[in-house]
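Dear Dr. H.,

I hope your travels went smoothly. While you were away I took the liberty of generating a structure for the chain from your last submission, since the lab meeting agenda had it listed for discussion. I wanted you to have the full record in hand beforehand rather than looking at slides cold. The sequence, exactly as received, is reproduced here:
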Amino acid sequence: MGGVVRKLRIERGFLSLNKFALEYDINRANLSKIERGEVGCSLAMAWKISEALGLKFSEFVKILEKELGDKFTFIDA
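The corresponding predicted structure, in token form, is as follows:
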């Protein structure tokens, strides 16, 4: 999932993870770990990321399903 998030972030013009995280009040360290696949992503965090990317949550999930199939899940946090 992290690779998809990174790809979408860069495609939408956010070349800097730090700037993206700061602008949308997302914990930079946590986002970095998500993008590297070191930690799972909660539903709440995925929602926040989708909004920051300018996507409806349903659109974000469709992209994840297309890219990852059944290989992704959200953690319960």
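Two observations you may find useful: The mean pLDDT is 89. The helical segments are 2-11, 17-23, 28-36, 43-52, 57-68.

With kind regards,
E. W.
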